[in-house]
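Dear Dr. H.,

I hope your travels went smoothly. While you were away I took the liberty of generating a structure for the chain from your last submission, since the lab meeting agenda had it listed for discussion. I wanted you to have the full record in hand beforehand rather than looking at slides cold. The sequence, exactly as received, is reproduced here:
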Amino acid sequence: MAGFMMRYVKCIVAFCVFFFYIPVATAKDQPHSDVVKKDGTYLLYANGIVKDTKTGLEWKVGPDEDTDWKEARSWVQSLNLDGGGWRMPTLDELEGLYKEGKGDRNMTPLLKTTGWYVWSGETEGSSYTYNFYFYYGYGYWYPRTTPRGERAFAVRSRGDG
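The corresponding predicted structure, in token form, is as follows:
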């Protein structure tokens, strides 16, 4: 009788793990399975997140309007989309988006923006920050308070949030 009960308990545990544990883990690993468009290694989800399947980074484009660095940082910090964990990108991450001749802004067209410049989170003192210029594909220091077409992008990896 003890052997039968032990097999019965193991069967119940296996059932619970299969039907309760696995779906929860899958939902956490892939929180947005509603892919609406693909572009090479990039996936666009219905909630506006663009995932780079090569790097694992997830991107969200901010308001399509000129913004200074402080406004861009504030927008990123307040972003709670799909569990949060968003931050401003590094210059290297922005360089990774640059693909000469791709779309109308030298990046995947899934990242919809009319601006050529995107702010990074890298700063120099209290006055300057790196931004990336997608027209030519390079970054440079620029005053934080002087917008001339800069946009805010938010980025995260699943390890960030």
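Two observations you may find useful: The beta strands are 35-39, 42-45, 50-52, 58-61, 117-124, 128-133, 138-143, 150-151, 153-156. The first helix runs from residue 2 to 29.

With kind regards,
E. W.
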